[in-house]
Amino acid sequence: MEKGLISTIQGYSIKDGPGIRSTVFCVGCNLRCRWCSNPELMLPGKKVMRFSLGGEERQQEVGYEIESRALAEKLARDRMFYAETGGGVTFSGGEAALQWKFVAETAKILSGMGISSALDTAGDVPWEVLDAVTEDMEYVLYDVKTFDDAMHRRCTGRSNARILENLKKLAAKGRMLIIRMVIVPEYNDDLEDVRKRMELVKSLGACVKRVDILPYHTLGKGKYQRLGIPYPIKGKEEIPQTYWNEFRQLGVGISIVIAGEHG
Amino acid sequence: MAKFLAIYDADPFASAFIDNCMEKGKLLKNGGCQYDVISQSNIGPAVLGNSFAAIKKLVFDEKKVSWEELKQAMEANWEGEDGKRIRKLCKEAPKFGNDEDEVDGIVADIFESYLELLPAYKTDRTGKGPEISCYTMSTSNITSYVPNGLDVGATPDGRMPIPPLNEGCSPTQGTDVNGPTAVIRSVAKLPNWKVAAGQLLNMRFAPGTLAGEENLHKFVGFLRASQRMGIYHNQFNVIDSKTLRDAQKHPEQYTDLIVRVAGYCAQFVSLMPETQDAVIARTENVW
């Protein structure tokens, strides 16, 4: 039985795929996105966040080990909610694919219980790993952070060559994809690059079920303080409405959902 | 209560529509009703269950505190070094509403014992007209849990004297920290089908969690799932900014408040103050 390191299980999760889901946050990531809102999940291993609440000094331990079977059973307790809403479990992080044996085994057990899983990934792992970890999953939530490689290196510290290759391979295999694009002012908001990202997504065809645009937010800021790390993003924090107007006129013909907007 | 109702709420108009009142020549609250089944409100079952769970854990299982020490700490309203230490242990003991089988099972036992004892109690009208006159259980106590709390001293679940008891069959305010689905799973373990006069569960949702068609559909699915799990009575509050500000001032009273942050939902009071501010600002924009 595989063991994994996770931080929390978020119940009634409604933004990480279809229906009501439970999102499992896995510890450890191989990218260093400047805008990361879960910095406590970047480095591998357990850690402590310190803060004060209601005038009381507190500390919060991040990370605990759990076996795949125990995790699956815990997640299965919400099966009625998944069943009624077409939901399930989403493995996120951090980069869940780094603990691929554990995640794959948990997804397999869940699949045996009739519970659907999804992987929320940045995709920077060997293709064999990505293929294996998604074997028993229904959806892949895939980040497309930039099209340009140099821009990707600036934003995340690593090339996106393998990421884009893996995305095409997932599509070729017919995996159902939910594309996620976070837009961060002055980092990856270049509209020409966004257009190229959109063209790429369009070329993947019908396996793309949805494209979610996630406006950058500074809500992870406090976690950096708790961890004693300087906040890496400087500059504009708000994306002006005029930007979204231009964004919508890129005209590549794919439908997008911009988070925070409700039609 | 029944004595007062017989005088002040005898209600001749309503009595005219109830079987047997005309025949017997008696009003509703004076024995005219054929099937006179009264809702008997149970108040504070979660406070009681959490208290038993704390005693079981600390006094019996782990032997961290003796019964005498616990009693003294409660009598002193948790004051002093020892009081504070013991109260912390009590607050950390398992609480109803988090899908933890042991404490949820204790609360279920409390319901069962109440249901078992209830038929032995006669109403004021038993034998004075109705064919059947008895009590049936309810947790729809409206706001009684607030004034009832005023008369209850410190309790072994870590509660201070005076604050409200738990509302209806809901978890004690601020003790359910694993989100709404865990609350449903806990309440689903109670003998809900036997609580014939209303089993009231109250939940709070932030407006953002219900915003937009998609989230509304998910919420409907949540209600359907709850219903299939035997929850037939559930009320919701959708929270405004004023409450959120109050939550910042008194976080200890709001640990069950779930808000949508940005792409995820989280426990409001565990967010950093600036995040809380951001959530408040955005909520105001939307609503």
Note down, in words, how this protein is organized.
The complex is a heterodimer of chains A (263) and B (287). Chain A is an alpha/beta fold. Chain A has one domain (3-258): TIM Barrel, CATH 3.20.20.70. Chain A is built from 9 helices and 11 strands. Chain A has a 9-stranded mixed β-sheet with strand order 5-1-2-6-7-8-9-10-11. Chain A has a two-stranded antiparallel sheet with strand order 3-4. Chain B has 287 residues and is mainly α. Chain B has one domain (34-238). Chain B has helices at residues 2-8, 12-15, 21-24, 45-61, 67-75, 80-92, 101-117, 145-150, 180-187, 207-210, 212-228, 241-249, 273-286, and strands spanning 35-41, 132-138, 201-205, 234-238, 258-260, 265-267. Mean pLDDT of chain B is 88; it is low at 283-287. The interface between A and B is large, with 38 and 42 residues.
Number of helices of chain B: 13
Helix content of chain B: 40-55%
Domains of chain B, number? 1
| Shape, principal axes of CA atoms of chain B | globular
| Biggest interchain interface, per-side counts | A-B, 38 and 42 residues
Summarize the biggest pleated sheet of chain A: 9 strands, mixed
Low-pLDDT runs of chain A? none
Mean pLDDT of chain A equals 91
* N-to-C span of chain A: 45 Å
Q: State the distance separating the first and last CA atoms of chain B.
A: 43 Å
Structural class of chain B: mainly alpha
User: What string gives the helices and strands of chain B in order?
Assistant: HHHEHHHHEHHEHHEHEEH
Element order, helices and strands of chain A? EEEEEHHEHEHEHHEHEHHE
The pLDDT mean of chain B sits at 88
Instruction: Catalogue the unreliable spans of chain B.
Output: 283-287
Shape of chain A: globular
The name of the CATH superfamily of chain A reads Aldolase class I
Write down how many β-strands of chain A occur, each being a DSSP E stretch of 2 or more residues: 11
User: How much helix, percentage-wise, in residues of chain A?
Assistant: 25-40%
